[in-house]
Amino acid sequence: MNKSSLIKELFANIKTTGAVTFSSKSLVNKMLSFADFEGAKIIVELGGGDGSITRGIINRMDEDSILLVFEISKPFCENLKKEFPQDNVHIICDSAENMDQYLEGKSADLILSSLPFSLIPKESRNEIYKKSRSHLNQNGYFIQICYSYLLKFQFANYFQSIRTAFTLKNFPPAFIIICN
Ligand SMILES: C[S@@+](CC[C@H](N)C(=O)[O-])C[C@H]1O[C@@H](n2cnc3c(N)ncnc32)[C@H](O)[C@@H]1O
Prior knowledge:
alpha/beta, Rossmann fold, 7-stranded mixed sheet, 8 helices, 7 strands, 24% strand, binds S-adenosylmethionine
């Protein structure tokens, strides 16, 4: 898919994508600057979309690390599979709330999310929070990008430590919530 087809797909499914544009390079760099990739062997991305964050993760992760990318849009999944054919990158066309089925009892060192939590029904959203917490290593980080500072208060029910950052270098300006 070319850039304009990706944007059309994003826009046509705004109720599940929750965005009118993909994350800027600057936002991705800032988000990933909070993640420690050294020794992170299992990495999970929630909401792969066009692959803008996926690409940033792959550029930073160790060669022997594994990346699981969850994405519910079939066209986005097909595109991600073509763009990232590496053996250690698994594009999973399923909801993030089923992450436990794919992690097979293992824990993630990093969970990086751009899911539009404010649009996800409460029950599914809580499942994603609960499973992210229980499948994250003790010293692991869950990092979320979002457009509302208020989302931070939902994370407070699941994570002990929460910090936030902000960038104007995205449309719209975005928050980064760093939880562990
Ligand atoms: C705001 S877009 C972000 C796309 C891209 N990662 C970026 O940063 O620009 C959110 C993505 O999450 C996907 N998504 C929404 N709900 C999901 C769910 N329950 N599980 C997995 N992916 C989901 C959407 O299809 C969309 O591609």
